[in-house]
Every structure is written in C-alpha cells, then in structure tokens.
Amino acid sequence: MLRLHGAPAAVLLVTLGNVPAAAEHVQDFDRALRAFAPSRDLRKAESLFLEGARQPGRNQLLCLYELGSFYHWAGDCARSAAAFAQADQVARTYEGKALASVSGGLGQVGAALTNDKVLPWEGAGFEKVMSRTLNALNYLALDDAEGARVEVRKAEEYQVKEHERSRREVEEASARDGEQPATMATPALASAYRGMASFARNLRNSYENAFTYYLSSQIYRAQGPMGLNDALVDIKRAFALAPDVPAVREAYQDLLARNESVAAKEDGSGTVVVLYEAGLVPRMSEVKIDLPIREKRKDGSVDSYRLSMAFPIYKDFGQPEPALRVRTPAFEKRTARVVDLRPMAVKALEERMPGILARSLVGAAAKVEGQKQAEELGGILARLAVELATGVVTRADLRSWLGLPAEIQAAQFQAPAGTGDVVLSNGLWTEKVALEVVPGGTTFLMVRSFPGFRTVKAVAIKGDA
Amino acid sequence: MKATLALALPACLLFLACNQPVTSYGNAQKTETVNADFGSTDLQMIAETMVTSLLASGKLEPDAAEPGKPPVVAVARVVNSTSEHIDTKSITDKIRTALVKSGKVRFSALDAQADLLRQYRLQGVLADDATAKGAGKQVGTKYILRGDIASIVKNQGRTKDVYYKLTLNLVEVETAIIQWAEEKEIRKESVRKIIAF
Question: Which positions ≥6 away from A188 have C-beta within 8 Å?
C-alpha cells in the first residue's frame, strides 16, 4: 500500500484549497424545478446555473446542460440550443486535453485525497449523446431541419467515439488476464451494487441509444428523397437495438418500401411522428461501505483494518412511465418506449466504478497515514482535526445531469393533409392539440412531461427542407 | 499605514490592468489553425477555388435575350451535410461578391423575393403611378448556383482527421443541364498533446 509522507499537511492543504461549493447540485436542481414547474419561471434556474455556466470551473458543463434542459422545457429553443452548443465546446475542450497534464494530475491527486467533486464534471458518454439529441429536437422546434441534421450527425460521431473507447477498455481488461471489475473485488461492494447490476444487466453498454438513431432516421426521412438512404441506415441501427418497439418497426418497414419503389405513391397524406420525453432520470445517492485496508509496517508485519468510504450509487430507479395515448377521430395510437435512460445512467456509473474505487483507495491510505502522522506530531487533537477534515470532504460525487428525461417514447402514423385535432393523454393529464399535416411531409409532435409539468409543440417539415 | 496604502492602490490597479483581456486587430487573410473545425481560412480557400474555376470555364454565356450583357445567376443553396453548424450563406456570399466584382456575372436576389413582393404590393397601393415598381419586370435568371458541403470525421487515438468537400454546380435554368461543376477538398488533422502544463 502506498505510504505518503507529510500526508497530514498535504491532506489539510488540499482540503482547505478544494472544499466543494456549499450548495449541492441536486438541491440546486430541485429548487430550480420547484420554481419552474408551476409557472415556467426560469429566473431561479438562471440564478442557480447561469454563473456556473459562464465561468470555466468544475461544474461548467453540468450547469450548461441543466440550463439547456430548462430552456428546452420552457420552449425557448434558441437559448437551449445556445447552451447546448456552448456545452459542446466545453466537452470538446475536455476531450482535447493532453493525455497527461500537470494541472490534471494535481486535480486527480486532490480528488484522491478529498473526493471526486474537486474534479471538473465531464459528463458520461450517454449524456453527451443526449445533449446532441435534445438539441436536434430544439432545431426541429425552430423549424431548422438542416440544423437538426447537423446535431444528429454530431450525436452519431459521439456514439462512434464511445464505441471506440469501450472497445479499447474491453481489450485492456482482457489483457489483464480476467481481472475482476473493481465493483466485484470485495464482497461488501458486490453486495451494495447488486441491485444496480441487476437493473442494468440487459444493456450491452451505457451509450448505444436507439432513440437517437430513430430520431435521426426520421429527420433524414423528412428531408425527402435525398435523405432516404441515410434514413434507412439509421433506422436499421435503431431496429437492431429496439426491434420490439412498434414505431421503430413501422418506420423500418416504411423506409424499406420507399427505397424499393422507384416512384413513391403520393396519396396526399403526411407522416406524424410523436416524440414523448417522459419523466426525469433517477439521481444518485451516497452509500458508505466498509472496505478492508491492508498496510505493511516498517517491520514487515501487516496492519489490517476497515475504513468506511463513501461511494455514489443508484438505489431508486423510478417506475416506468405510462404510454401516451394519441387519439384522432379515425383511430388511436399509443407511444412505446424507444430508449430508457435509467439503466444507461446506472451502467455509466458501473463503468466509472474502477476509477472511483482506485481514487478512494489512494485517499483511504493517505487519510490513515495522515491521521497516524498527525497524532505523532501533535497528539490526539491533531489526529482528530485531520479525521474531521477528511471526514467532511470524503463524500461521494453525486453530480449527474438531472434534467434528462427518464425515457423517450415514440409513435407514428399517416394522416390526411390539412389541419386537425389530436387528443393526447397519459392517464394523468389530457390535452387537445391542433396539428398541421403537409402532403408528403413529416409533422413532429414533441411532448415533454414530468410531474407537475407538460409542454407540447408541433412542427411540420416539408420535403427537401 | 498611509505609505502601505500609497503602494497598495497602484499595485491593485496594475494587477487589475494586467488581468484585462488584450484586444488587437488581426490579419483576416492569415492562416487560421485554431482547431480542426471549419474556419475562416477554409472559407477563403473554397471561395477562391470556385471563383477562379467558374470564371476560367467559359460557361457563363450571355442570355440570348440580352446579348452583350453578363448572364444573370441566382444562388440557390448550399446544403450542409457536415456535423458542424457551418454558415453556408457565408460561403455563397463570398463567391457572389467576387463574381460580381469580376463584372462577368449579374446576380438575381432570389432570397429577396418575399421583400420584393411586399414592395410591389405597397407601391401598387401607395406610390405614384409614374414611379411605382410592379411585378413582371424582373430579369429572368439564366443559371442557378447550388451545392453541398460534406465532411468525414475520423478519430483514432490522439488524432482527429476531418475531411471536407464542397461541390458547387452551375445549372442552366431552361434546360436543367449542369454547365459547370467544381469541388474543393480540404483535410485537417489535429493531434492531442501527450503532456501539457
């Protein structure tokens, strides 16, 4: 085990220099949501996140994502798009940083000695894919189909990048001769994380997102004949991930038929695509786990003891969201879930656990060494001071993008051209919406709903937009 | 105390002055390689290639109805098929400006039709008959310029490789024949540092 000399001074210095901001992110988000949901008042969200979004800092990317969500819900798609665009720049800055940097290394040391909250929040892969996916919806709402296509291309690039990262990690893990993932390294951890492992067991990885491919396919399809090939490529990807979703299956069959037929039959109808962002992602909580620590003494003997460490965990996964019923005078359709972001968030945390555990173990060693040396130098009071300081700051990093929907559902149908009413209901609320359908075009009906809030927007895209 | 304050105040002012951003004019023609995204130098390279090629092609023939006058061209659109929000209007504006300056082309303001229609309606109602401008006298467009910009992005380890291709076509309106086509390819590569401070 690592022996760190001068540990007590180092721990105290790093502690004093790096104590995270007093307000926890989860509490900020809840306050912003309570102010926003009843009246769409953005002032609280802006007061809590705007400053963090403007200044380079440990929470800049997170603040930008949350602001992007609030503006997105409020229907201020231009400001939401601007927030997500800036988030993109910040994310790319983190991705483009040197493989090893002195300042980054110091940050990791600081995190090891205190907690991960001192590190800049860089977001999980699935969150970055979702920021581009939601931004594509912003551009659709702004009637900018070309901008929407740019965003889905960016989302696809990111999925490819995540796929490469995942492949490299699997290769490296295989090269380590079947070394067990850190979460299963001790019985205490395995037991604590059993629920999470079970919840995300059906996912191959944390980043593959059927909805992003489905949305991309629909956006290309709306372009007209020029976009059909791209639409077919993406719907095949969506179908591979979500073959049981009726909207995906229907879109796939429709695109196969259109690609095969030389002259598409124009019957004066248009396509209506219902996209339903439902609920909110679960949030992490903290779990304290006693881990065994073994330390070699100068005389060669081994000191064994247990140290209580804090880790992030998902305990409450939430409930599946009810489907949205879409009723027209002619028929009724129900949306079905295309992507569930809950297990993706859980899987992303699982993938991060080796790094979290490694930093926690280094921090634990430093803490124990610091306490011992403090007692040698200054007696029991000094030891207690170090114990208090490190106890205060050795908390789990619970930061995540809380403004993401829990799941996204979809449905699609053909409707005669013209303007008509559809009635939407999910068992908790009902709303009538006027819909414009253009012949040969696509109307996107975008619905967002979580407890206490809902919004509906419809945009008709003509072909060759 | 007073001596301390006397030193502290200018020191603070100096500190504040040193922390203000420094702004100066740069050379708009200087090669820009801030990152691998589409940038000002790419825009300039594309415009120069397209204008030089079109003017040298000999395809810009006068309209039979207006012999001796430069043909009328309208810029349709350049479709953005990349994964960046590129302002394709900047590309076409730059090309159009250079072509107009050459004196060999006249441009029709296709993008101003809505404003022009509004003017015809207003002038028909409000303006003096002798000076009112109405519909039916626009010079017909002989050619339209339309194109596409696409990109291929590859990430491998520390390297990001971006390939751009702009394709521009001159289409004769009456016959729908593509009378001229040109493409410009640009490749940019950026490599992450191994160590930074």
Answer: A289, A290, A291
Confidence of residue A236 (pLDDT cuts 50, 70, 90): very high
Q: Tens of pLDDT along A359-371? A: 777 776 666 666 6
Residue A303 lies in a domain: yes
As its CATH architecture, domain B60-109+141-192 has 3-Layer(aba) Sandwich (3.40)
Distance CA A43, CA A67 (A): 11
Measure A384 CA to nearest chain B CA, in Å: 36
- Test mutation, B81, B151, B152, B188, chain A, max A CBs within 10 A: B81
* The predicted structure's pLDDT at residue A5: 46
Residue in the structure block whose two tokens are 């040197």: A98
Domain residue spans of chain B: 60-109+141-192
CA dihedral (A337, A341, A342, A346) in degrees, to 10, reads 140
Determine, yes or no, domain membership for A192.
yes
Binned at pLDDT 50, 70 and 90, residue A35 comes out as very high
Tens of pLDDT, residue by residue over B56-88, are 998 888 888 888 899 999 988 889 999 888 888
For B154, which residue in chain A has the nearest alpha carbon? A157
CB atoms within 10 A of CB A306: 11
- State the pTM of this model: 0.82
| Chain B contact present for A380, CB below 8 A | no
Q: 233-262 in A: which are within 8 Å (CB) of B?
A: none
Total domains in the fold of chain A? 1
Q: Which residues contact B41 (CB under 8 A, 6 or more apart)?
A: B31, B32, B33
A2 found inside a domain: no
Identify the domain containing residue A53 by its residue range.
7-461
